[in-house]
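Lab notebook, design round three. We kept the backbone fixed and only want residue identities now. Task for the bench partner: fill in a sequence for the structure below.
Input structure tokens:
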């Protein structure tokens, strides 16, 4: 059957909407969360439930059109030409079991809903910083959170998944029933099928305490060195992010940060105040602003103000193996150079702790890395757009000698493949898992190298 005939038939069969090229609303439906990424699928389906998913699978098989599951497209890579994008919004199950510290989450649920459901409890979700990223997209790509030093990657906390296999079987799988599929689901995306729900361990966080310290940009090198030195002594209950910020003079930014440059250090402890551990950081510069006290992921999300509407942006991400004084000085000098103003922020996340000894086998791992870096080049009114590409290339070249062997798939940039996140043997193993689970290639290969 031709693609057009298959899509026409599918549109009539589905309970949920299917928008094809030329349909009203298609352009809005095909857009990913990152508006800088252009994607040209043949259609976008929003299945109403499992029956719809099965119909989409059957039509894809008959017409030879790959299915690409994309809950919201924060990780869109722009490579879905001619495929059917599947949005999972209808899969909205959310069951929190506080007695056993487990949450069951439908593949359309976003982290914000889970974080809100846990507010005021002694548990935290292994969630990323954005409340609008889907639990499925994040967890199936590894996922680094505020709690990763304490509890590992999001994927390490994946106990089980409900999967619709390409042959139409829908089942709950775990390490006992299908260890190979679970290894792949922990970081390599939906290689084995369409995930409809996930069962995830929560993080014990009986006394969440946070600190936010702000310094002048002139103190950047000494502050970042002190944060680096803290990593040797920090317990795994302490999670630390630091960032170098050059905010553009853009009207959409809050007045207190608009046009300013500064360094922030943020810490989150899961077992109470960790004030004394931060003394070395405080002594590294003149603290301009300090907030400490009991906190929660919802409070942190409110303070960070991550965008909740689709935006356009570019960036560079890298896991670092070493982070010595020379590299810190070079990075700080790089970010302060006038021509690097397109880079609004360089975020550095302290790794180690539970990340060094993953609790479950999975494709994604940050065990070989000590820092996770993301440089953000935003693209909003008032932000400099040029020479953003040169800045991205420049920071990647600067950091390349210190790059770790592997990064995590949720920190891949558009166009990068899973080769950056695993060994050649891991990629061969993934190909074998895919060949056995999806011999006809009904599911888009995602970031698996072609
Ligand atoms: C503002 C922002 C903040 C972020 N913060 C963090 C962070 O703190 N930590 C972090 O690790 N990452 C972070 N990310 C990256 C983000 O976690 C990844 O891009 C993630 O993949 C996005 O989830 P999504 O639902 O938008 O996925 P999409 O981009 O829609 O999908 C990603 C991939 O997941 C797979 N997939 C998703 N759902 C299913 C399913 N149901 N069945 C089968 N396969 C599926 C598919 O292979 C798909 O291509 C952030 C991204 C942004 C834009």
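Proposed sequence:
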């Amino acid at each position: 059957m031709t693609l057009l005939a298959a899509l026409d038939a599918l549109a009539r069969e589905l309970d949920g909407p299917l928008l094809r090229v030329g349909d009203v609303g298609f352009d809005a439906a095909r857009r990913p969360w990152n508006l800088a990424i252009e994607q040209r699928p043949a259609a976008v389906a929003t299945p109403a439930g499992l029956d719809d998913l099965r119909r989409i699978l059957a039509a894809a098989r008959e017409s030879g059109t790959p299915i690409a599951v994309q809950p919201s497209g924060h990780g869109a890579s722009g490579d879905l030409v001619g495929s059917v994008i599947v949005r999972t919004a209808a899969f909205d199950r959310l069951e929190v079991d506080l007695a056993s510290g487990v949450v069951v989450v439908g593949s359309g649920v976003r982290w914000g809903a889970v974080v809100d459901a846990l507010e005021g409890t002694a548990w935290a979700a292994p969630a990323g910083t954005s409340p609008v990223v889907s639990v499925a997209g994040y967890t199936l790509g590894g996922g680094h959170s505020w709690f990763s030093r304490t509890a590992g990657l999001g994927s390490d906390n994946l106990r089980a998944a409900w999967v619709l296999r390409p042959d139409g079987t829908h089942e709950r799988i775990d390490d006992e029933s299908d260890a190979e599929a679970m290894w792949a689901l922990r970081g390599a995306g939906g290689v084995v099928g369409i995930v409809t729900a996930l069962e995830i361990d929560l993080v014990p966080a009986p006394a969440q305490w946070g600190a936010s310290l702000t310094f002048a940009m002139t103190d950047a090198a000494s502050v970042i060195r002190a944060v680096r030195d803290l990593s040797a002594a920090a317990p795994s209950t302490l999670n630390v992010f630091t960032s170098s910020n050059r905010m553009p003079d853009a009207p959409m930014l809050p007045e207190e940060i608009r046009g300013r440059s500064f360094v922030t250090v943020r810490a989150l402890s899961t077992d109470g105040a960790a004030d004394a551990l931060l003394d070395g950081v405080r002594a590294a510069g003149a603290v301009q602003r300090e907030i400490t006290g009991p906190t929660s992921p919802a409070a942190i999300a409110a303070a960070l103000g991550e965008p909740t509407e689709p935006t356009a942006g570019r960036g560079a991400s890298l896991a670092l193996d070493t982070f010595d004084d020379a590299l810190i000085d070079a990075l700080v000098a790089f970010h302060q150079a006038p021509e690097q103003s397109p880079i609004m922020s360089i975020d550095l996340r302290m790794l180690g702790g539970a990340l060094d000894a993953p609790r479950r086998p999975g494709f994604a791992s940050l065990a070989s890395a000590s820092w996770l870096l993301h440089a953000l080049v935003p693209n909003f009114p008032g932000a400099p757009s040029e020479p953003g590409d040169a800045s991205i290339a420049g920071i990647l070249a600067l950091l390349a000698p210190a790059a770790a062997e592997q990064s995590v798939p949720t920190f891949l940039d558009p166009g990068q493949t899973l080769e950056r996140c695993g060994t050649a043997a891991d990629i061969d193993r993934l190909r074998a898992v895919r060949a056995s689970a999806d011999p006809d290639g009904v599911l888009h290969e995602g970031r698996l190298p072609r």
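Keep this in mind before ordering anything: The chain is about 25% helix and 20% strand.
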